[in-house]
Amino acid sequence: MNKAIYENNYFKVTDTEQDYDYRVLFENKTDVPITVIGSDQVENIEIPAHDWVGLLYGEQALEWLELIESKDFRIKKKEIPKKTFYVSITETLNKIVEVQAEDEYEAIHKVSDAYYAGDIVLDSEDFVDTEFEDDTERLLESYDNGGLPKYYEVK
Fold it and tell me: ∠ at Cα 13 (10, 14), nearest 5°?
């Protein structure tokens, strides 16, 4: 019968109470690898992200059980280096304008002229949609070809 002997936001330790097979199970509940560090008498336990590690029945497993029950251990989360991404934000505004014209081309031309002259202004009331897209690859290619990406840094 499995018995959870320790659990926090990072990991869970279970005693299987078996004298064969796995005796102690360490489960990592995080997105990054963690190391459970005990005394000098035991090896550190490396647990991959969202994975588990089991210790077979034996001296190491029993020593780890004592350390966990006495809370004589510490956890070290592996720091994953941050990467730089360039995310494009595109807002779509839309306004329908009534215009008198002989055909659709003249109608589009009149509205276009009025828009560029500043007679038609779109604002937040004309908001339709927002899209977010990873634009990193395109911007880095542009940068390699002599263009300098314009961006706003978010911490």
Answer: 145
d(CA 78, CA 121): 51
Q: For residue 68, what pLDDT is reported? A: 93
144 phi, psi to nearest 5 deg: -65, -30
| 32 closest CA partner among 73, 81, 85, 67 | 81
* SS3 state of residue 139: helix
Type of residue numbered 50:
H
Residue 39 has a pLDDT of 85
- Cβ(6)–Cβ(41) under 8 Å? no
Comparing C-alpha atoms, which of 90, 85, 87 is closest to residue 128?
Answer: 90
